Amino acid sequence: MENEVGDATTGAGPTPGEAPEPVITPLTEPAEGIPPVVETPEALAAVVEAFGSGTGPVAVDAERASGYRYGQRTYLVQLRREGAGTALIDPIALPDLSALSDALVGVEWVLHAASQDLPGLAEQGMRASRVFDTELGARLLGMERVGLAAVVADTLGLGLAKEHSAVDWSTRPLPSDWLRYAALDVEVLVEVRSILAERLAVAGKAEWAAQEFEAVRTAPPPPPRAEPWRRVSGLHTIRDARRLAVVRELWTTRDTNARQRDISPGRVLPDSAIVAAAQALPRSVPQLTALPAFAGKGTRRRATLWQSAIDRGLALPDSELPSVRGPKSDAPPPPRAWADKDPAAAARLTAARDVVAALSLQYDVPTENLLQPDLLRRLCWTPPDPLDETSIAATLAAGGARAWQVELVAPRLAEAFA
Q1: CA-to-CA distance for 65 and 70, rounded, in angstroms?
Q2: How are beta strands 25-27 and 158-160 bridged, if at all?
Q3: Distances (CA, A) of 340 to 333, 337, 345, 346, 375
Q4: Which residue from 143, 298, 316, 393 puts its CA 20 to 30 A from 401's CA?
Q5: 273 domain residue, yes or no
Q6: Residue 236's domain is classified under what CATH number?
Q7: Residue 112: per-residue pLDDT
Q8: Of 218, 237, 265, which residue is a domain's last?
Q9: What is the pLDDT of residues 109-120, one digit of tens each?
Q10: In the chain, which residues have pLDDT < 50?
Q11: Are residues 74 and 187 in the same domain?
């Protein structure tokens, strides 16, 4: 889990007239110490029995190796439940955790930023019956900082260090400091959940939160991108089809190589090197390695591979070159172009944004959590007919808005559009 580091306390006193800074107590050790990593079927069976016999919600977290390994595979699963303690499970040694999932049917899972962890957990056979997302709860409460460390500090007055959030969790054996960090990530998550749930109820937002949590739990995986290579950083500097073809060939070659080696693509060849090669269009390996972006030992070692990809892009017939404009999309054009293309739609968008901004202030909820920005743009660009509250509500619901969002936003949008 990747989250921000909590605020450090200082010895400086408060400015006159200001409230004193809250005292944050560092959370440095798990209550029962660092548990051993579960990596055998026998140890897993004991965990399944213990957690199945536990009581109350279960705190769940997962660690990946983003930036180190290919994909978003889970490399450590952490759980904690009253009566069962904390378990750290190695999903590489134990890829099938469905028995643990079965033991927790009907139990609420407490996660922070659940959308990050649930897909990887599902690959291990772990699927939640119910979810409480502490990050989403914090957002709905209007908290300024919603990283786990900040939320723990706000709710419990405890300082949770996050210095190991971006390490290579595929490392084996895992260092004890990393395991301590992993255990602490679930140490107080259920306590945080209880406080946030109480605050949500007082604010009249408990039902909103329930709908958001269920939407996260049941969200389908995103559809594959039609042309994922167009996400190369710096691609906007490439403005002709031939160079785009070189980018595509280099990206495809890099992706294949990274997958085979189980290494993050950016470590195999940086995006900046792909763009540099597409701009220079070298015709030979010496020309390629003369580029500063290809001067490194690793890139030089595979220079022949990269030059072959460049050569394929240069040799493509014009009929097979990628479009400079990109694939066709049903998404509206960028809002900055609306005034020229459709002044009425531009006016609707301005009015709609004012409505959402006002509701955001009124209910202390971020605008993006009140209504998905893309859905709002689609509604304004292609409005329903008639443009009344009923049609607006149906359009929002069809686009994935939750019932509480529709109930809150649709009437105000209808008034603004009228």
Answers
A1: 8
A2: parallel
A3: 11, 6, 10, 9, 21
A4: 143
A5: yes
A6: 1.10.150.80
A7: 98
A8: 218
A9: 999 999 999 999
A10: 2-12
A11: yes
